[in-house]
Amino acid sequence: MARQAVVQQFEAKQVGRNESSLTREEIAALAYSLWEARGRPEGSPEEDWLNAERALNEQEGISIQK
Question: What pLDDT shows up at residue 17?
């Protein structure tokens, strides 16, 4: 599954949530989904974490500098 599809599925589950800030659990859940979508490779958890954090912050309307 492509990264964008995984992010969209995760975002659909988040519609209507009351909190405006991201939680560690939200980032971890999306990072895990992204990792699975990439075929569960070893040695790159930070890549999925950062991609998840970036995608969720974009959803929240927060810009992150690289």
Answer: 53
Residue reference for tokens 């927060």: 62
Residue-wise burial string across 37-52, b where 16 or more C-beta atoms lie within 10 A, e elsewhere: bbeeeeeeeeebbebb
Give the range of the structural domain holding residue 38, as residue numbers without chain letter: 3-60
CB 27 within 8 A of CB 56: yes
Tally of domains in the chain: 1
Whether 53 is covered by a domain: the verdict is: yes
- What lies within 8 Å, CB to CB, of 13 at 6+ separation is none
Report pLDDT for 36. Answer: 95
Whole-model pTM: value is 0.65
Question: Which residues, given as ranges, of the chain have pLDDT below 70?
Answer: 1-3, 11-20, 62-66
